[in-house]
Design brief:
By secondary structure, the chain is α/β, with parallel strands linked by helices. The protein has a domain of 252 residues. Helices cover 53% and strands 11% of the residues. Helix 7 crosses helix 19, helix 9 packs across helix 10 and helix 13 packs across helix 15. The longest helix has 21 residues. It is globular.
């Protein structure tokens, strides 16, 4: 089975109308925020402004991507439209900054990771006769026993349902939210499978769309690190690990950060308080995932109408699962290579939604631009950008016989600039393989669904 991933804005746009309203929004709070941010999203995306700061071949695609995210945000993350300007600024800084040898876009990337998530969930299918988890799904869901293939979406629903029904961090958290357990019981609720599939789809798509929202905050942290030890950790960002813990200790991402264990599961006395504070401090300093999760939850909380009768606990669960996935997609830096924090390894068996989002983030290389600054020979004051989209498409091949996956970044074997990008990017393939896809101790533990994952770059 092969799945080909390439630039697609239409499919991701089509899904907006079916997304849930994650939180009941207070009209008074939203109006107050809108009045403060009089600049407005439309003004931010005005072509005349973008032409001044971002190369013209890319600003149309950027405008389309931000527009898609803003339309989704009405239901999923209402405060996003007031942050959009900072995302555009961050994208511009990435063009002119010298912190990397070439630019990595994030705005277009987020919409395409969302598209990649949809394609994976719907199109990646497993043979019931040869895949152990697919066979378990058929038995658990009591579906037609003549079914030959089960989708990744269905496997995620199965794993999520088992985690909620059996003693686990998710069982504890759903009870904390007040969600009746029978809703997820396939024997008591004939709609349980569809409910779980909806939760998986909506939370994974939400996380994918906003998984890089922590980048503007990581920019401040980078400044802070440059000044260390002359300044306190929270001087610029306002982030303090102990305050963060106290404010968010009952949220799902904090349970995930503590190794997918509830706080009362740890013995007393123990060094758990020190471990969680250390994880928070490192996560805030060197990742954009943890600041992103905190931002996503905090801003949704800030606009939430707590008196509303329209609040839906399932939608709150979707929001929490999405926040956990936003955090975990960048936790490899904390997990380490060599492994420093084994309790943070991301496995399909205990966190299928974060797993799928992180896998999609690694797959989505197609269409990402490599923007390298170049100074013309006849000028010392003008900077131009050599823009390339080196990866034309990404191919995922799943072999049902050996249960292995090959992910291929496909480069066009034509333009000289693209081949330069090929050589430049290709050096990262072994690093990514070791960091993420090493079966023994890579960040992604895929042992429950795949036997191996191989990553390669090819010219075609």
């Amino acid at each position: 089975m092969k799945i080909l991933f390439k630039e697609d804005m239409a499919k991701i746009s089509a899904g907006i109308r079916v997304m849930p309203q994650l939180v009941a929004v207070s009209k008074a709070k939203y109006t107050r925020l809108r009045n403060i941010n009089a600049d407005g999203l439309r003004n931010t995306l005005y072509p005349g402004k973008l032409n001044k700061i971002i190369p013209s071949p890319e600003n149309k695609r950027l405008r389309a991507s931000v527009s898609i995210m803003a339309r989704y945000s009405t239901r999923l993350f209402p405060a996003f439209r007031f942050m959009a300007k900072e995302f555009v600024t961050t994208e511009w800084l990435s063009f002119v900054d010298f912190h990397k040898k070439f630019h990595r876009d994030h705005i277009f990337h987020q919409t395409q990771v969302a598209y990649t998530v949809i394609e994976l969930l719907e199109k990646l299918k497993f043979e019931v006769i040869s895949h152990r988890l697919a066979a378990k799904f058929v038995s658990w869901a009591n579906v037609n026993r003549h079914r030959k293939k089960i989708s990744l979406l269905e496997l995620c629903a199965y794993r999520l349902g088992v985690l909620i029904q059996q003693p686990s961090y998710l069982n504890h958290f759903t009870r904390q939210l007040g969600i009746p357990g029978y809703l997820f019981n396939v024997e008591k609720n004939p709609h349980a499978v569809e409910l779980l599939k909806t939760i998986v789809y909506n939370s994974a798509l939400t996380a994918a769309l906003f998984h890089d929202i922590g980048y503007p905050f990581q920019f401040l942290v980078n400044i802070e690190k440059a000044l260390d030890p002359l300044t306190k950790f929270d001087l610029l960002t306002g982030y303090n690990p102990r305050d963060i813990f106290n404010a968010f200790k009952n949220r799902l991402f904090m349970t995930v950060l503590s190794g997918y264990r509830n706080f009362n599961d740890y013995p007393t006395p123990s060094d758990f308080p020190q471990i969680i504070e250390e994880n928070l401090e490192h996560g805030l300093k060197i990742t954009h995932g943890l600041p992103g999760a905190i931002t996503f939850l905090h801003l949704n909380d800030s606009l939430r109408d707590y008196q509303s009768a329209n609040e839906n606990q399932i939608n709150l669960l979707i929001m929490e699962l999405a926040a956990a996935a936003i955090m975990m997609h960048d936790m490899q830096k904390i997990y380490g290579n060599p492994v420093a924090r084994p309790h943070l390894r991301l496995s399909f068996s205990r966190d299928p939604i974060s797993f799928v989002v992180t896998l999609a983030d690694q797959i989505q290389e197609y269409g990402r631009i490599s923007g390298e600054p170049a100074t013309p020979a006849d000028s010392t004051t003008v900077i131009k950008f050599n823009i390339e989209k080196p990866v034309r498409e990404v191919e995922l091949e799943y072999d049902a016989d050996n249960n292995g996956v090959e992910i291929s970044y496909i480069y066009e074997d034509s333009a000289k600039g693209r081949m330069a990008c090929f050589e430049k990017n290709n050096v990262f393939i072994p690093v990514t393989m070791a960091d993420y896809f090493n079966g023994r101790n890579g960040f992604l533990d895929y042992s429950e669904i795949f036997s191996k994952i191989k990553l390669e770059a090819i010219k075609r």
